[in-house]
Amino acid sequence: MAQVELKQVRKTYPNGAEAIFGVDMHIDSGELIVFVGPSGCGKSTLLRMVAGLESVTSGEILIGDKVINNVSPSERDVAMVFQNYALYPHMSVRGNMSYGLKNRKMPADEIERRITDAARMLKIDQFLDRQPNQLSGGQRQRVAMGRAIVRNPQVFLFDEPLSNLDAKLRVQMRIEIKKLQRRMNVTSIYVTHDQTEAMTLADRLAVINEGRVEQMGVPMELYANPRTLFVASFIGAPQINLIPVRFDGTSLTNGTLKLAGFSDLPTGVDLMLGIRPDVLSIAPEGQLELNVDLVEQHGGENLIYGALLGTKNAAGDAQEICLKGPQSLLPATDDKLRLAFDPAAAFVFRTDTGERLK
Ligand SMILES: Nc1ncnc2c1ncn2[C@@H]1O[C@H](COP(=O)(O)OP(=O)(O)OP(=O)(O)O)[C@@H](O)[C@H]1O
Ligand SMILES: [Mg+2]
Predict the structure, then answer these.
(1) Which of 15, 21, 60, 68 could link 7 by a cystine bridge, Cβ 3.0 to 4.6 Å?
(2) What protein residues have CB closer than 5 angstroms to ion ligand 2?
């Protein structure tokens, strides 16, 4: 167990591609940090620099109190789990798990003890003599985790370990990883582009955008208090509703829509009003009118999609929004619904910079 520290870490690939622009981060001992962000934002690059699989162009990475920039991957005491499992196909599960330990000349009885413990924890004890191609995807991923666990590392690094699994198994494994990480209390960095995985797994999460950490904090803080349009739109499922507006000195306006309850905003600049789907409610006197397109029944709740009457988005169409409602709310296509929201629960961003203004 160890803390991890990144100081002004930058990465420029040999071909000149700049991937990471000065990341600072402190990860406490035992914490589970999730890096989340869209494809290509630099999550794997950052993780691979911690693992030692990519060089650090400038800045420092510390594990414990030690700068590890020039320490070889095998000496860093980190264990990485990859999306594609990266198991040796010709070796048994036991062989895969023991390989790294044998290389380090660990006594056989100690290896056996570690494998037995990890296999029991991961419920793969009955597969120890099978080869990877005789296992399901979920079982293979467990073996990959087992191989990391037996090394008893200071830090676990996960790069999208669940993306090859089906949706149901992914949820199940995500819960198991969280429980396992809590029990073992090993400092962990987990990379994903899946916001639900990020929200549910993380002690704290770092939202990464184009090689920079846009915001870092506990998941609910990022949800309730996003600093930028990017963070607000990346965190939360279904996605936050974003309505382009302007401020006329007293109201937010778009087409014939006028929304009161906002003040201290700049006039003459493009703004984006952000309203989470669960902040909207049905109310006869509501400020918004929705023309219903589609209802998605999710079991416990329904998601209602439709166009906001009177508004126009950048493409000239009425702005689409989504509302979260109870099971019993089942409007038909083209029904009109009046919706209300509390302005205090909505966000306003500058469209050009993405900065949150309220
Ligand atoms: N070996 C490389 N040489 C040059 N550029 C690279 C290399 N590896 C990655 N990049 C670039 O660095 C940027 C970040 O890539 P990275 O793989 O870290 O993204 P990511 O956030 O992990 O994306 P994904 O979710 O798709 O895995 C991308 O623009 C990518 O094209
Ligand atoms: Mg990646």
Answers:
(1) 60
(2) 44
